[in-house]
Amino acid sequence: MLEIDHVTAGYGTLTALRDISVALEPGARLGVFGHNGAGKTTLLRCIVGAHAASAGSVRFNGEPIPPGRVPETVRRGLAFVPQGHNVFPNLSVERNLRVSGLLFDQSFIKEVLKVFPVLDERRAQRAGSMSGGEQQMLALGMALMTQPKWLLLDEPSTGLAPVIVRNVMAQMRKVNESFGTGLIVVEQNVPATLKLVDQALILKSGKAVFQGEAGELSAKPDLWEWF
Ligand code: ATP
């Protein structure tokens, strides 16, 4: 269980997140939405301990996630893919995967390549020469090399063509189904993400203005009024 318990966080005098609570069962899929500056990235950073909450706490399987100890948090099973192409451009696809899994079971690369056949075909290719969608898949594959229980993704579809977005969303579903990995996906592309997730959270100026089933949100004709 991953529990975000009354988390408030900010930067100096600015409060970026206000009293956010979410409890997620293993393997759940949460979409986090909201305008620019709503606090989405801050929430992900608080969950992995990359940013310290000023109030509240995050617990994973009952144990707190302390701020400032991200490598330890990754070893405990939380992987964070920040916005942008998080690959080593001058290394091959295979080297990227192996470097990411350096402290983990390297044989897991076989499983990752099964989920992403594109990466298997391109294992010798220099990562920087791959397309945006392929690099996004590699970033997902790299995070998977740590065999996470939870995968936190910050705007994985940014800059991708709609057909590639569908592909990346399908790969995330495959990861969730194949390994039981829970997903927390921050996205601007709300319609595409609502097809992937089962729960949704909309943030506005750091506050939760909607929290519930993704299906309930998709059915709302006034969906955009929440933003
Ligand atoms: P976007 O969709 O644009 O990425 P977001 O919803 O992820 O936005 P955050 O990045 O969490 O929003 O930012 C929330 C607020 O905190 C914004 O007002 C932002 O300017 C501010 N902020 C974020 N990082 C810092 C920082 N390092 N120092 C000061 N203020 C920050």
Order of helices and strands: EEEHEEHEHHHHEHEHEEH
CATH topology descriptor: Rossmann fold
CATH classification class: Alpha Beta
The overall number of domains is: 1
Looking at CATH, the homologous superfamily is P-loop containing nucleotide triphosphate hydrolases
| Count of distinct strands | 10
* Mass-distribution shape: globular
What's this entry about, in short?
The chain is an alpha/beta fold.
Report on the structure:
With 227 residues, this protein is an alpha/beta fold. The protein has a single domain (2-220), classed as P-loop containing nucleotide triphosphate hydrolases (Rossmann fold, 3-Layer(aba) Sandwich). It has 9 helices and 10 strands. It has helices at 40-48, 70-76, 93-100, 109-115, 117-121, 132-144, 162-179, 190-194, 214-218, and strands at 2-11, 14-24, 29-33, 55-60, 63-64, 78-81, 150-154, 182-186, 199-204, 207-213. The strands form 2 sheets. The chain has a 6-stranded mixed β-sheet, sandwiched between helices. A 4-stranded antiparallel β-sheet has the order 2-1-4-5, covered by helices on one side. Strand 9 and strand 10 form a beta hairpin. Helix 3 packs parallel to helix 6 (132-144) and helix 6 runs parallel beside helix 7. The radius of gyration is 17 Å and the shape is globular. The mean pLDDT is 92. The structure holds adenosine-5'-triphosphate (ATP). Adenosine-5'-triphosphate (ATP) binds at residues 11, 14, 16, 34, 36-42.
